[in-house]
TrEMBL record:
CDD domains: crotonase-like. Belongs to the enoyl-CoA hydratase/isomerase family. This is Enoyl-CoA delta isomerase 1, mitochondrial. It is found in: Mitochondrion matrix. It catalyses: a (3E)-enoyl-CoA = a 4-saturated (2E)-enoyl-CoA; (3Z)-octenoyl-CoA = (2E)-octenoyl-CoA; (2E)-tetradecenoyl-CoA = (3Z)-tetradecenoyl-CoA; (3Z)-decenoyl-CoA = (2E)-decenoyl-CoA. The lineage of its organism: Eukaryota, Metazoa, Chordata, Craniata, Vertebrata. Its main location: mitochondrion. Gene3D superfamilies: 2-enoyl-CoA Hydratase, Chain A, domain 1, 6.10.250.170. Homotrimer. Keywords: Acetylation, Fatty acid metabolism, Isomerase, Lipid metabolism, Mitochondrion, Transit peptide. GO terms for biological process: fatty acid beta-oxidation. InterPro entries: ClpP/crotonase-like_dom_sf, Enoyl-CoA_hyd/isom_CS, Enoyl-CoA_hydra/iso.
Amino acid sequence: SIISSADKMSSVLRHCTKFTPSGFGSLLSGNCSHGRTCALQYFVSSNRYSSSKIKVDLDSSNGVAIMQFQSPPVNSLSLDFLTEFAINLEKLELDRGCRGVIITSAQPKVFSAGLDILEMYQKSPEHYTEFWKAVQEAWLKLYGSTKVTIAAINGSSPAGGCLLAMCCDYRIMADNPRYSIGLNETQLGIVAPFWFKDTMLNVVGHRETEKGLQLGLLYSTPEALKVGLVDELVPEDKVLSTATETMTKWLAIPDHARQISKSMMRKPTIDKLLANREADITNFVNFTTKDSIQKSLGVYMEMLKKRKS
């Protein structure tokens, strides 16, 4: 089961490695420890990591892993999805044969629709705590990865889907007028937390983030390119191949130099969440359990039901 796998992973990491949640800890100490090798032997048995919601194929010839989201209908970021996502990223982080990760969707027309509203509606405070820890962990693993990370965005990517894309080093999106991307939380009556804000701020700057967050903007593909939310627009059938070509350029840079440069840029943002993790969870639980927020989420879910019918 997912939980038992997570427990095993945690146990191995506790006993075998000093690897940090952000992924950058190993850069400062230089050589890999014997413990990290121990963890490697535990995790890497083949070049394919299988889980029910995520498929990962690692090409041993170039060190590039393609991670496909396969959680129909819209790759919602449920507790199970986020747990699998973090575990798979951890496996790849510990795999010396992996140098880069491309994340994309196996579902047509959608990259990820964002956080699963069902995880935030009419559940216990304990459940909200567990869920938010998983959201934090997924962000820490992806934003703090030492690997080259490229988002091959082959569909719409609102809210949490946008967050995952922004965590990557480079973003390539399908040039389709039906697709959009952005942190649109305020449209649902909820608020993007400070580390969502910080991630967007680091990508598009202060003024665009202020507008985007307050208005809950979903940017069309040309708008996303114009403000720098994505780096490149390509035809829909070229998204993955372009990501693979782009990865080659990034991997031409010596890993150690690139990793330290990435760490210099991202470590302050990561440290800010690590220093405020418990307070952030408490804020989320207090906010989500408010009657007004539960009511807003209920209205939104009713609207979704009407759309489906």
